[in-house]
From TrEMBL:
One of its GO terms (cellular component) is plasma membrane. This is GTR5 protein. Keywords: Membrane, Transmembrane, Transmembrane helix. Pfam families: Sugar_tr. SUPFAM superfamilies: MFS general substrate transporter (SSF103473). One of its GO terms (molecular function) is D-glucose transmembrane transporter activity. The chain crosses the membrane at residues 6-26, 125-147, 210-229. One of its GO terms (biological process) is D-glucose import. It comes from Rhagologus leucostigma. The keyword Transferase does not apply. Residues 1-230 form the Major facilitator superfamily (MFS) profile domain.
Length: 230
């Protein structure tokens, strides 16, 4: 049982690794908005599977649901940062990106509180707790179609200048936005001369070795801060 529950807990991270590894390919091929919409559907399906696990008397459903949740979260984290940053005006971009970390922490806190036995962590309500991750996904699934695709994606990957201008006007209002479009064009020109490294190439690249060491040490030691014990 200990081994089984350990797998159920840790398989979320395995799904997250797979999801984040495929995020770049999917965003370039399908666009950030479409990927986020499909990702919401994946999370809702995962929440439904976990929510029905008690009725079906199947621990395998929890295992599958947790894995799918991990894949969805792995896709969502880089996607969300990119999409929010790209649809925000330049002066609000830093603030918009910082909201991701705030709501990430808030979500963890709400989950910890909701999981108490006095709330949704009881014997009868725990399936509802596991299915609750589908609610934010449902809200985004309903709201996101009213937002345009990311302007940089439309211009840089699709070459759709008119679509980019229309998206900018929809997001930022009417006005002169030529400076922002010029910035995107400069970024596109820079990217043509920049090689995109794979994960394996990044690990092997000597010039990034110390940055990589720092990230690995920070990520490993943050697990020792006591948050899981608390």
């Amino acid at each position: 049982l200990l081994f089984l529950w350990s797998i159920i807990v840790s398989i979320f991270g395995i799904g997250g690794l797979l999801g984040s590894s495929g995020s770049r390919y999917l965003t370039v091929k399908f666009g950030k908005k479409k990927c986020l919409l499909c990702n919401n559907v994946l999370m809702i399906v995962a929440a439904s599977i976990m929510g029905c696990s008690k009725t079906a008397q199947s621990f395998e459903m929890i295992l599958i649901g947790r894995f799918m949740c991990g894949v969805s979260a792995g896709l969502c984290v880089p996607l969300h940062h990119q999409y929010v940053g790209e649809i925000s005006p330049k002066k609000l971009r830093g603030f918009a990106n910082s909201t991701s970390s705030f709501f990430w922490s808030l979500g963890k806190a709400v989950g910890q509180i909701s999981g108490q036995r006095e709330l949704l962590g009881s014997r009868s309500l725990w399936p509802m707790l596991m299915a609750s991750c589908g609610f934010p996904a449902l809200v985004q699934l309903v709201a996101l179609p009213f937002f345009p695709e990311s302007p940089p994606y439309l211009l840089m990957h699709k070459g759709d200048q008119e679509g980019c201008k229309k998206a900018i006007r929809q997001l930022w209002g009417e006005g002169q936005h030529q400076a922002e479009i010029d910035d995107i064009m400069r970024e596109k020109a820079t990217m043509k001369n920049t090689k995109i490294l794979s994960v394996l190439e990044l690990v092997k690249e000597p010039s990034f070795r110390w940055q990589l060491y720092m990230i690995v040490i920070l990520t490993a030691t943050i697990q020792l801060c006591g948050i899981n014990a608390v």
